[in-house]
């Protein structure tokens, strides 16, 4: 792994270099920083119409909007003047970097994101001409400049998943499902943690419910052969193997491959699970028309708009022609704001480089365009509002389990983290992401569909 694996996935962009600590003081005059500050404060005065935000810096306290009992004031303390240029040139990435590197402290991250979403139409002025240029460039680059080719796909997976298995064990459920669970009344529903507090075992139960739900959607039966694209840490593969299926699961992560094989042996199903370290475009030739079902859980985001046809054509090639089912889940954009050109934002920059989010309908259309007449769209289930509780639980667990022992392991693996500021930036990056995603799903700004497709005339059981 390259030593640059840390808070930044690759070399810093021009935007990041321009606003990183030290550059502003060295290359930009105080007058330009003051301009950025006054521009941002003016936009906030006019734009915060719902909710309440207070900004405190060394000079003054600035209040925007109106607080209520239900929506208390969000307080943001500015620790460095670099913050103003970060926001002016980078918008949401600038705020994220300021939080990660402790240039700001925020009383409530979810509250801050709520103010942003509630007023996003009136806060457009925060995105300056410069940040708009960067956004347009990044949207075109991610769509057309080859960032989803096999080499870059491997780099993206290394960055997102090859941190260390111990790190992910610090916040995931025992089965290490890094995807949305399905809550029920047994865990007091999607807001049970807010009403009654978190309960040990709830996340594990909800993740197992999701796994079994997807297995049912895939119509898996003992003796079937399952292809899984995106292994995770093996929970889905182990569950299918315990049912009596044979599983071929695909990953680009060496860390995941190692743990999936260990877990298969521990569960006594190693003879029914094969883990392949390869790209979905490089599947073994003997996979052709060999599988009864395909499951891909929150992986398709990494495929990219340009390669969606290839992705679905590979699945068509691998599945049996007469009886087969495909189940997909993916973080998505709702139809009213979906675009084929998606620019850089915090999550794309710092967690999942260059992901493309489909909409519920655009993905179904992509399947038919890539494989005309080969699949029937049979079911769509919305998991959107199950995600916020999981993200809250992951955040709580990470704060509790980010121990000195885990920090030492990360520092040994990535020398960059021997700098306490970099280690803290890494930790805060994850907490920021959990809150950022929680609000997006809770407000319906981001969605999570689960699609089921089958071969034509593939009825689940005799019904006449």
TrEMBL record:
Keywords: Lipid metabolism, Methyltransferase, S-adenosyl-L-methionine, Transferase
Molecular functions (GO terms): methyltransferase activity
Gene Ontology terms describing biological process: lipid biosynthetic process; methylation
InterPro entries in the cross-refs: CFA/CMAS, CMAS, SAM-dependent_MTases_sf
Top-level taxon: Eukaryota
SUPFAM superfamilies listed in its UniProt record: S-adenosyl-L-methionine-dependent methyltransferases (SSF53335)
Record Gene3D superfamilies: Vaccinia Virus protein VP39
Pfam families in alphabetical order: CMAS (PF02353)
Similarity field: Belongs to the CFA/CMAS family.
UniProt name for this protein: Cyclopropane fatty acid synthase
Organism: Lentinus brumalis
């Amino acid at each position: 792994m390259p030593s640059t694996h840390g808070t930044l996935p690759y070399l810093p962009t021009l935007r990041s270099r321009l606003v990183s600590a030290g550059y502003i003081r060295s290359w930009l005059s105080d007058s330009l920083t003051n301009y950025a500050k006054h521009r941002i404060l003016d936009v906030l005065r006019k734009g915060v119409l719902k909710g309440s935000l207070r900004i405190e810096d060394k000079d003054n306290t600035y209040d925007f909007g109106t607080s209520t009992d239900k929506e208390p004031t969000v307080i943001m303390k500015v620790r460095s003047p670099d913050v103003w240029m970060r926001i002016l040139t980078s918008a949401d990435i600038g705020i994220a970097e300021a939080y990660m590197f402790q240039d700001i402290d925020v009383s409530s991250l979810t509250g801050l994101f709520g103010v942003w979403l509630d007023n996003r139409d009136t806060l457009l002025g925060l995105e300056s001409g410069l940040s708009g240029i960067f956004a347009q460039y990044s949207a075109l680059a991610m769509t057309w400049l080859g960032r989803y080719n096999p080499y870059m796909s491997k780099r993206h997976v290394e960055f997102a998943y090859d941190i260390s298995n111990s790190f992910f064990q610090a916040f995931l459920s025992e089965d290490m499902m890094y995807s949305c669970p399905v809550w029920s009344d047994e865990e007091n529903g999607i807001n049970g943690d807010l009403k009654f507090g978190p309960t040990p075992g709830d996340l594990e139960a909800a993740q197992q419910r999701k796994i079994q739900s997807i297995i049912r959607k895939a119509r898996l039966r003992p003796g079937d052969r399952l292809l899984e694209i995106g292994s995770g840490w093996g929970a889905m593969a182990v569950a299918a193997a315990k049912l009596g299926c044979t599983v071929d699961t695909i990953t680009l992560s060496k860390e995941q491959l190692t743990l999936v094989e260990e877990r298969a042996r521990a569960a006594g199903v190693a003879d029914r699970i094969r883990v392949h370290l390869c790209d979905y475009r490089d599947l073994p030739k003997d996979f052709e028309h060999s599988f009864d079902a395909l499951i891909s859980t929150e992986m398709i985001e990494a495929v990219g708009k340009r390669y969606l046809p290839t992705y679905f054509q590979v699945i068509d090639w691998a599945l049996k022609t007469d009886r087969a089912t495909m189940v997909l889940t993916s973080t998505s954009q709702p139809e009213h704001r979906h675009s084929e050109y998606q620019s850089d934002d915090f999550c794309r920059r710092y967690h999942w480089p260059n992901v493309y989010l489909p909409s519920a309908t655009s993905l179904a259309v992509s399947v038919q365009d890539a494989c005309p007449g080969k699949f029937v769209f049979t079911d769509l289930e919305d998991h959107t509002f199950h995600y916020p509780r999981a993200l809250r639980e992951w955040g709580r667990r990470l704060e509790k389990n980010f121990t000195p022992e885990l920090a030492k392991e990360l520092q040994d693996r990535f020398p960059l983290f021997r700098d306490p500021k970099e280690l803290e930036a890494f930790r805060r990056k994850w907490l920021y992401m959990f809150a950022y995603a929680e609000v997006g799903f809770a407000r319906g700004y981001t969605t999570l569909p689960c699609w089921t497709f089958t071969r034509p005339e593939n009825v689940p059981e005799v019904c006449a």
